[in-house]
From TrEMBL:
Residues 4-287 form the ArsA/GET3 Anion-transporting ATPase-like domain. Keywords: Hydrolase. The keyword Hydrolase applies. Belongs to the arsA ATPase family. It is an enzyme of class 3 (hydrolase). It comes from the Bacteria. It comes from Alkaliphilus metalliredigens (strain QYMF). GO terms for molecular function: ATP binding; ATP hydrolysis activity. This is Arsenite-activated ATPase ArsA. InterPro entries: ArsA/GET3_ATPase-like, ATPase_ArsA/GET3, P-loop_NTPase.
C-alpha cells in the first residue's frame, strides 16, 4: 500500500481547514484509514470536529477510519531536541551534552523541528491517506522551501566548519537523507496532491496563481483548486445575490481558463457553520459529487 499525501493551502480565511476536513471525512467514509494533520499555529481542528485533539493522534468520534492531530511547535521542538541529544547522553559527559544542547537552540531549530514532525508522517505506512491542513500560503511555501535549503546547508557545512544554524553537522547528518526523501515525495505527483483553496474573487485568484508559481520553482506542482464560498443558484431571487452570483460564476470560468490543466472543484455556502462530522458528510457529498468512485 502506498500512502497518498494531500496538502491544503491558500490565504487565511478561505476555508482551508473546512475543505481539508471535508476531504478527510470523504476518504474515511470510503473506508480508507485517514489522518488529518494541521501545521497551522492557529489551528482549529478541535473546534471543527468538536472534540479535544492537540499534539497527539486522536480518533475522531462518530466516524471510523479518521484520526487527527494538531502539531504544537513548542512540543515538537522539545521532542526534536531530545531525539537529537539522546544518543549523546549515552556516550558523552554532561558538560559536552550541555554544549550540544546550546548549539541546538539556534534560530532555525524550531522551524526544523516543525518540519521534522510534519515529515514523520511521510515515513509511515500506517495510513492510506494523510491530509495536511497547512498555515496560510506564505508560511507553507517557506516550510516547504526549508528542507531544500537545509539539505544544501548540511552538505556545505560538512565540508567546512561542521557547524550549522541547527547545531553540529554530526548531530543532524542523518536528517539530510530524511529531508531529501521528503522532498522527493512532495515532488512526486503520483503520491502527493497539492490543493489550493480560494474564494471566487479576483484577489484570491491572483494569490493562488502567484503561490502556485512559487511552489513550482521548488519542484512542487499544484494538482487541484477548490473554489469555496459560492452562492447557491436557488438563492439568486434577490438582485443583490443575483449580481454576486453572476460575478462568482465569471470568476469560476476565469479560474478554469487560468488553470487549464488542473481539476477545479467548487463548494457552495451553507446556511449553518461548517463543523462536526455530519456537516462534513454533507459538504463531502457536494464537493465530490460526480467524482470518480474509484478514486
Amino acid at each position: 500500500m502506498q500512502t497518498e499525501f494531500m496538502l491544503f493551502s491558500g490565504k487565511g480565511g478561505v476555508g482551508k481547514t473546512s475543505m481539508a476536513s471535508t476531504t478527510a471525512v470523504h476518504y474515511a467514509e470510503k473506508g480508507k484509514k485517514t489522518l488529518i494533520v494541521t501545521t497551522d499555529p492557529a489551528a482549529n481542528l478541535s473546534d471543527v470536529f468538536e472534540q479535544e485533539i492537540g499534539h497527539k493522534v486522536t480518533p475522531i468520534n462518530g466516524i471510523n477510519n479518521l484520526y487527527a492531530m494538531e502539531i504544537d511547535s513548542d512540543k515538537a521542538t522539545e521532542e526534536y531536541k531530545e531525539r537529537s541529544l539522546a544518543p549523546m547522553r549515552e556516550l558523552f559527559d554532561e558538560d559536552l551534552v550541555k554544549v550540544a544542547e546550546e548549539q541546538l537552540s539556534g534560530p532555525c531549530t524550531e522551524e526544523m523541528a516543525a518540519f521534522d514532525k510534519f515529515i514523520d508522517f511521510m515515513d509511515t505506512d500506517e495510513y492510506e491517506v494523510v491530509i495536511f491542513d497547512t498555515a496560510p500560503t506564505g508560511h507553507t511555501i517557506r516550510l516547504l522551501e526549508l528542507p531544500v535549503d537545509w539539505s544544501k546547508h548540511i552538505e556545505e557545512s560538512a565540508k567546512g566548519s561542521g557547524q550549522t544554524c541547527m547545531g553540529p553537522v554530526a548531530l543532524i547528518q542523518e536528517s539530510k537523507k530524511k529531508y531529501d526523501d521528503a522532498i522527493a515525495i512532495l515532488r512526486d505527483q503520483s503520491q502527493t496532491e497539492f490543493v489550493f483553496v480560494m474564494q471566487p474573487e479576483e484577489t484570491s485568484l491572483e494569490e493562488t496563481v502567484r503561490s502556485s508559481k512559487d511552489l513550482a520553482e521548488i519542484g512542487i506542482h499544484t494538482t487541484k483548486v477548490i473554489i469555496n464560498g459560492l452562492i447557491p443558484e436557488e438563492e439568486t431571487v434577490v438582485p443583490f445575490f443575483k449580481g454576486k452570483y453572476d460575478r462568482q460564476q465569471n470568476m469560476i470560468q476565469k479560474s478554469k481558463d487560468t488553470f487549464t490543466d488542473l481539476t477545479i472543484q467548487t463548494m457552495e455556502l451553507f446556511d449553518t457553520e461548517l463543523k462536526g462530522v455530519e456537516m462534513f458528510r454533507k459538504s463531502a457529498a457536494k464537493l465530490f459529487e460526480g467524482s470518480d468512485t474509484n478514486e
